[in-house]
Amino acid sequence: MHRKNDRSGNAQNESWMRLHCYMTGALTLAAAVLELIMAFALNRIEGFVSAEPVLYIIKYLITPVTINCVLVLVGMLAMKNRWLSRQTRQTMVSLCMAGVCLVLYEVHSLFPALILLPVVAIMLTTSYGDYRLTSITAGVCLLGVPVVDLLVVWDSTQRHRLENTENRINWLLSIVMLLGCYLLCLASIYYERQRIQQAARQKWELRRDGLTGLLNRTALNDRLGQLCAGGQGVLVMVDLDGFKQLNDTMGHLKGDACLQKVAAILRSRAGEEAAFRYGGDEFCLVFHAPELRRIVQACEQIGRSLEEMEDFSPCRVGASFGVAEYRPGMTPAQLLKNADSALYRAKEKRGSVCLWKEQTE
């Protein structure tokens, strides 16, 4: 179940990473278009744009667009590079988005609201559910904002963000807001993980037998579907011998304890994911490798282990086994029917292992 959840989570992360990369490109394109519009609109406001037209185009259009296009290209190449780990690709895509946001934040320093761009870069990482990735992106933004504000002067003719006390206070509040956003993102990741884990537990419980802890009939049907789709495997049906006498003689509590002990033996011999409770005192074992000799040996060992149980004396509990191997074209229902037919024959001999293929010869 955990492997299936991991595969599902990986597919979702891959899908989000592609969207994340496309959003970085869309932001770069949108910023370029808006800058063109602003170049004409702001030029009509006297004194708002002090740079010469050519210099303005170089500083506010060509240079930032070139830098951002390089970042988008790096993100695209990282996303498509299967030699890199998924975590590395996600980190590079996230950092490229953060880089684009920081470039736009610095170039357009006239607009204090653009501090929201690094906030967006941090928030977009929460969909990956990775504390480390969000922390790295937040660290780059929290360090990047002071660095570009204190060390980079993009346009000396424009007012600086820190030119007076009021601006400096607003700037500090912006840094605090960035930090608060980061902490909120960590909290969001934590509660989303809790929700996913709770949903996984509920799904796990729905596929488990409440008494024995083995996988239940619903899980068995799914597993048989996988077995038939895979084209090979073996189904073993197990029926306890002497259990009804034990239940009638020693009571239902002892009967339940016996079923739990049987489940533990099946689990230890066949594996956690191979043992199922079919119903009552019937169990199933599913093996994907069609090695009949070893499977028969495993059934015989299980039978001996059951007969050696000492907690239910004077009653003795054993087991009969019906074994059916998958053959091309079989459905899960046919496989169950064949195993049940083999079990019926095994019950006639009590405590034996019967192969369905022997009945058809």
From TrEMBL:
GO MF annotation: an example: diguanylate cyclase activity
PROSITE patterns, per database record: GGDEF
Entry-linked InterPro entries: Diguanylate_Cyclase, GGDEF_dom, Nucleotide_cyclase, Rev_trsase/Diguanyl_cyclase
Keyword annotations of the record: Membrane, Transmembrane, Transmembrane helix
Residues passing through the membrane, by range: 21-42, 54-79, 91-124, 136-157, 169-191
GO biological process: cell adhesion involved in single-species biofilm formation; negative regulation of bacterial-type flagellum-dependent cell motility
Chain ranges of the GGDEF domain: 231-358
A Pfam family per the record: GGDEF
CC annotations in GO: plasma membrane
NCBIfam families: GGDEF
Protein's name in the database: Diguanylate cyclase
Organism of derivation: Allofournierella massiliensis
Taxonomic placement: Bacteria, Bacillati, Bacillota, Clostridia, Eubacteriales
